[in-house]
Amino acid sequence: MPQIKIYTTAFCPYCTMAKNLFKQKGVTEWEEIRIDLHPDQRTEMIQKTGRRSVPQIFIGQTHIGGFDDLNALNRQGQLDHLLQ
């Protein structure tokens, strides 16, 4: 399974929904980077993604985007393939 990285903040409902979707898919481990606790990581996230909102999700080296993007991949049946 590829490494999953999620940039989050403490009070982010979309971050929680993304983690819950991963759990539904049987994923129990990911690297969570709290940009509210580590402002330097916020800068890194913006440089990598061009986005300021959270969550920002990576599966392996692929930038998925936010929860809506992740959920769209799931609805299209493509998320399972990325998680293999």
Question: Any chance you could write out the topology, listing elements then pairs?
Answer:
Blueprint: E1 4-8, H1 13-24, E2 31-34, H2 39-49, E3 56-59, E4 62-65, H3 67-75, H4 79-83
Parallel strand pairs: 1-2
Antiparallel strand pairs: 1-3, 3-4
Helix pairs in contact: 1-3
Structure in words:
There is one protein chain. With 84 residues, the chain is an alpha+beta fold. It has a single domain (4-83), classed as Glutaredoxin. Helices cover 44% and strands 20% of the residues. It contains four helices and four strands. Strands 2-1-3-4 form a four-stranded mixed sheet, with helices on both faces.
Q: What's a quick, concise take on this entry?
A:
By secondary structure, the protein is of the alpha+beta class.
> Mean pLDDT across all residues, rounded?
96
CATH homologous group name: Glutaredoxin
Number of domains: 1
Helix content percent band: 40-55%
Q: Report the uncertain regions.
A: none
Element string (H = helix, E = strand): EHEHEEHH
Morphology call: globular
| CATH fold node name | Glutaredoxin
Structural class call reads: alpha+beta
Strand content: 15-25%
